[in-house]
Amino acid sequence: MRSYWTHYATEPADHHYYFLCPCRLLHALHSVFFLGLRRLRPHGLKADKDLPPLTVIVCAKDEEPHIADCIDSIFSQDYPRDKYSVIAVNDRSEDGTGAILDERAARYGSLRVIHLETCPENVSPKKNAIAQAIKYCKTEFIVATDADAQHREQWLRSCALCYDKLGASTGLSMFKKDTYTSAWERTWQSMQTLENLSHNVVIAGAMVNGFAITANGNNMLYRKELFREQNALKNDVVTGDDSDIIYEAQRRGYDVVFNAHPASVVRLVPEESIPAVINQRIRWASHIMKATLPVIVLGLTVFFFLLRSFLCHYLRFSGLGFSGTGADFCSLRRYVTFHICW
């Protein structure tokens, strides 16, 4: 038995070995994330007298169907009204977003609305909108969310993790639709929800293990100073303000934590078509070249794992590299079994 496993563990000439190296590394990383998730616990909620003052920033562009529900859910919080305010930015909307925000500002006294007509050249519109809002922010900590988000009653209280060493925190964001037009739409929307959940799991597992990969910019608390610094605000990147902030927080030695309280979960409206989902993911990935080394290593590991999976099947069905005999596939199966068990 020893000679059998030794043979398949130490045979470098076989091309199967190189395909399976990324698989082994990815399994090790998955174990790290899993152990981190097991240590994740929800925190207790603070009493009213201990809650810090907060500013909620919402940036909206053509969000007429959702912005009213978003603002109403923020002003339905059980957070003391005198301890938080909301700044909403109407970013060049061409629908009724601006009018809805103005109506809500008349209803809620602590809502400030900023209307933007233009965006500077070579500057990310989202980051420009946040930067304009921060000019009016008077609190040390900011809570960021999206215009299509809906929040639970204790969402803001659960975000109030503020302490001396905290730089930023992020919570779970979930895509959810109430109705579907077809069984096919239900299927691919469920796949989008599952993919987004796996993204959140990786974020949480990494943060508990002491390094942050990215964050959910639609459900995030951070120090105002982290965004205002030029190192945290990379204007030439379409998106990534959330990632830039947590990288800057880590560089300064601040804590970056995952908010595991059930009330922190934010519900988002998913994209309505598969091309829209692809475009959204491209925007999310636009900041990858600004990422830290651990993030790049993880991304490359996942890439080579998927490439290995594709090439194994391609070589099998094309006849390249495999004779098609049972012996070849028994050999590959033994390799897979060994490396997974390892």
Strand content: 5-15%
State the strand order across the main sheet.
3-2-1-4-8-6-9
User: Roughly how many Å apart are the termini?
Assistant: 15 Å
Radius of gyration: 24 Å
Q: Tell me, rounded to a whole number, the average pLDDT.
A: 78
What structural class do helix, strand and pairing data support? alpha/beta
What composes the largest sheet?
Answer: 7 strands, mixed
**Helix content range of the residues, please?**
40-55%
N to C succession of SSEs: HHEHEHEHEEHEEHEHHEEHHH
Question: How many beta-strand elements?
Answer: 10
Overall form: globular
Low-confidence stretches at least 5 residues in length (pLDDT < 50)? Answer: 1-15, 321-342
> Number of DSSP helices?
12
What is the gist of this entry?
Helix content is 47%, strand content 15%. It has 12 helices and 10 strands. α3 runs parallel beside α4.
Can you characterise this structure?
This protein has a seven-stranded mixed beta sheet, sandwiched between helices. Strands 5-10-7 form a three-stranded mixed beta sheet. It starts with a helix and ends with a helix. By secondary structure, the protein is an alpha/beta fold. The protein contains twelve helices and ten strands. Helix content is 47%, strand content 15%.
List its traits.
7-stranded mixed β-sheet, 10 strands, alpha/beta, disordered C terminus
